[in-house]
Amino acid sequence: MKGTATLILTDAATGEVVSSVVEHNLVTDALNNIFNPCPYAMLHRFDGSALFGAALPMWKELLSGVMLLGNSVTENKNSIFLGSDTVPIATAGSPYSGTNIYRGTLNENESGELPNGYRFTWDFGTDKANGTIRCVALTSRMFGDAGFHSDGETDGSFMMDPCHIGTTGIDPTVWFEYGCGQYLGTFESGVHLYAELDGNGALVFRTYRSIDPSALMINDSVGLSAVSEPVSERRVTLPFAVKYDDRYFLDTDTMVMYYFGEAVMHSDTGTMDITYTGISLDSFSVVETKTLTIPKYCGNYYIGAVWKGHVYFLTPDGLSEFTADGTLVKDHAAPYGQGTLLFLHEGCLMSQSPTGDIYCYSHGDTPTRTHFGRNCFTCVNVDLKAPYTAFTRRRRHQQGEASVKCEAAAAIAPYMATVNDLSQPLTKTSAHTLKVVYEITN
Q1: Do residues 376 and 398 make contact, with C-beta atoms less than 8 angstroms apart?
Q2: What is the rounded CA–CA span in Å between residue 250 and residue 183?
Q3: Parallel, antiparallel or unpaired: strands 112-114 and 117-124
Q4: Is 325 strand, coil or helix?
Q5: Residues 106, 94: contact at Cβ < 8 Å?
Q6: What are the φ/ψ torsions at residue 119 (nearest 5 degrees)?
Q7: CA–CA separation, 309 and 321 (whole Å)
Q8: Are the C-beta atoms of 184 and 39 separated by less than 8 Å?
Q9: 390/110: higher pLDDT
Q10: Which of 85, 99, 84, 80 minimizes the C-alpha distance to 143?
């Protein structure tokens, strides 16, 4: 992708062109990162069809804003977010006729598709974008409309819902849950595995293929079926009713996922039976079903795990560890509160609470604590790349009993998709009008 920005400064009184500057751009990694989200950290249910459906064609939402800066920007692919030395001059996105001096307007008559790209034309009147311009960058339409200064207006947004890029901002009361089941992982390039219980005792595995961002053209749209229809689907009937249909443990060493049933208490012996089953992600079949008899009460456990020959149950008091025959090995305390999920990360057994606290149980007797997560769903990979960022919101707990603070991911609207540093600064005053013509092509 390449682009050319032409800035035409005109004397408002005479109509004479005072200066015309033509600059060629550098393309940052902003769009590439948008189309390569990190599903674990981003969404419980990553919906490729929603993302690509809202974001394509690229010119419509992702490239249809412009920002004018009074500072130069380092021209490299990682120059995505504005720096602390930013000198704001103006932005523009959609047609605009208001009084905000920091916002121009789209000239629809002089904008339109090219055979292999798009031409944007934005106009800035005598009262707008006054100052010395040193850099021009394409950005999202939402930031082009929001501007550096809202002046009491509510157009645009600084943050975007990743599955509705360009169409809605962030609603702090809504959680991102779209798509087709719990994301398990990407085990081959561009093919992502999900699992979902169908309500009839069957576990359904579906694989979905994502679009190769490097193959996308600026004017490309995409049929939603290209990313919403599964590549494959397999069903595995579970041998019993599981306790929690949205909580499983995945042993990433053996690629076996485990579900656990309700606990059965034996009052005469003081023991308890808990049945679990393991499903291989290699063969998509049940490879293990076992009833474990344990010598203590774990009836209100949140989740279990089978790892390295031991069985674990996470309870309000902490983590109880047993041998394969049910002998208690140790009760690991939870000094910061209990978790609700167990998962493996870099060889460590970890738990996560509804509020996003994560505890590592594999580093000594006292669990270490970190904080990053989403309500009730495994957070394993937190490799968020700009313009994605962590975003804290409030959401009612899954059981509905409390409002909790959770972290998800949002897309930052004021990203720089391109960078055009001007070879010579351009100074605009109230005696001038400014036209910015930006052609972006494949």
Answers
A1: yes
A2: 11
A3: antiparallel
A4: coil
A5: yes
A6: -110, 125
A7: 11
A8: no
A9: 110
A10: 80
**Residue spans per domain, the chain:** 2-173+412-441, 247-376
Burial (Cβ within 10 Å: 0-12, 13-18, ≥19) of residue 353: buried
Structure-block tokens of residue 173: 């009361």
Query: 364-373, pLDDT tens digit by residue?
Result: 455 554 444 3
Interstrand relation of 65-69 and 26-27 (parallel, antiparallel or unpaired): unpaired
Percent of the chain residues topping a pLDDT of 90: 47
| Measured distance CA(353)–CA(360) in Å, rounded | 12
Taking the C-alpha atoms of residue 70 and residue 85, their distance in angstroms, rounded to an integer, is: 10
Of residues 170, 167, 162, 140, the one with CA closest to residue 414: 140
What's this model's pTM, rounded to 2 decimal places?
0.69
**The pairing of beta strand 303-307 with beta strand 310-315:** antiparallel
Superfamily in which the 247-376 domain is placed by CATH: YVTN repeat-like/Quinoprotein amine dehydrogenase (2.130.10.10)
Q: What is the DSSP letter of 42?
A: H
Contacts of 185 (CB under 8 A, 6+ apart): 40, 192, 193
Closest to 367 (Cα-Cα) out of 342, 389, 384: 342
